[in-house]
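name: query_chain
kind: protein
chains: 1
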Amino acid sequence: MDLTTLIFAALAIFVLWKLRSVLGTRTGAEKPPLDPAARRQPPPTPSDSGNVVRLPGAANDRGAPPVERWKGVAEAGSPLAARLDEIGAVDPSFTGQQFLSGAKAAYEMIVTAFAAGDRQTLRPLLAADVFDSFEGEMAAREKAGEKVETTFVSIDKATIEDAQMRAGAAQVTVRFQSKLITATRDRDGKVVDGDPEKVMDVVDLWTFARNPKTRDPNWKLVATETVH
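structure:
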């Protein structure tokens, strides 16, 4: 073997040794190559790990003891708690605090929409007879050329006063204590009612109703009363 052959043979051995040190050797325990077309397994859902995801409107308090179910809304063992239990038995998704949160939002929306004569907003929030009553007042106001200016300041307190199942529908009465600035002006801009500079304390008793057997989750205003 001449010198040239020995040199190339040495180079070949050196190259093979470097490849082996970089790439390693197969042991049989290697992971298979990634297949881009293979579907990834979805991560385990919360239920797989024993956890529960609480969703708005879901029956999160189903099975909870009354002292927890109506906490902050009605005293355990009280007549009001018993009546709320009647509603909860028919509609397990009903919870006191969640209802009050929605009722406060509806109260502000209805008050401001009525002042603005916004029938489109009012219609889905009111029972038919209540809407007709509101519509009559708004129409009379518009005919007289009057305009109501209302600034909603705050809801200081909202409490459930009564609850009952009546003719298959759940009815809940809420006492709202709020602060408003309201004034009515005639067509010439003169104030004929209220005071645009004065914050008024207002107390209202509003009753909301919903048929728990329907798919519609919305409560509608079925009765109003202003407490003087």
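note: The longest strand covers residues 147-166.
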